[in-house]
Predict the 3D structure of the following.
Amino acid sequence: MIVGVPKEVKNNEYRVGLTPAGVRELCSHGHKVLVQRDAGTGTGFDDALYEQVGAQLVDDAQSLYAQADMIVKVKEPQAAECKMLRKGQLLFAYLHLAPDPEQTHMLMESGASCVAYESVTDAHGGLPLLAPMSEVAGRLSVQQGAFCLEKIRGGNGILLGGVPGVAPANVIVIGGGVVGLSAARIAVGMGARVTILDRSLPRLRQLDDLFVGQITTQYSTIENIEQALRRADLVIGAVLIPGAAAPKLVSRAMLKLMKPGAVMVDVAIDQGGCFETSRPTTHEDPVYEVDGIIHYCVTNMPGAVARTSTIALTNATLPFALALANKGLKKALQDDPHLRNGLNVHAGKITAKPVADALGLEYVEAEQALQIE
């Protein structure tokens, strides 16, 4: 199979779909790998490193898309990239289609088969290809939130960990999954007072046992969220419904409960955001203010630490990329129901029910679309 790794074009996105080590693995299995020039420069992987492991460099994206059977990238394809996809081609990337009807319709029109990292599952009910970026984003959310709390950034001027004689900041984490856990670890490490809200009592017990009294756990209700917002200096939105649009758990009216200069970081923004006042931002222009509250809603947070993120992502995606390249789409998805759960679009059909439900489109089961017996 010919595998193509394009240069990412989203604003300030420095990650790349495969590390040189990942390319080497594919080449060792007899596949031809095309890498667009400078695709890995932002991660510290220059063109020479890719050539040394067997990649063939391609000057432009148009040529790469025209030749490749499978495109392996990081972020959802932008409009110009969607137009380069063709019938029968395989796209393997983050897609986040539920809040993005424009991209969804373009992928349907392309005729390509699109496997979304964020929808691939595992035997434990987890999302193994989303997890590494959730870990990065969770850690970054507190780091960026602490930065935004500085007075010169518009925040209320509170140091996250406080100092002797001065109370630390109150950090509220809504959602106790991978993002929430990662955020809490950093916030606790920085000396903040941390509260995690979640609707799963078993998960709250796990978190309580893990942190051994270092955090407060609460069941997530409207009342408890409102009470938490009143004392919050930093709020981390870490809610995920796999494949679906994020629920709006903090309304605009609730912002009036918060301290002026408090900060909200919406890690769920890729799925539409879990705050009513959230809107996508970029690393170039990451924050805005609504009713005195600072919002940070960057849609590709892990891109800020591109090298760490790229290595972590390739570690997770490589086994699946190899399966797709070695077996082809139909056989790979027939053999692995967890990989099959990642199929969102195939030959113009939506094969992910949460996406179909969110966008009001017809849903076709992956097995039916692929004609798997």
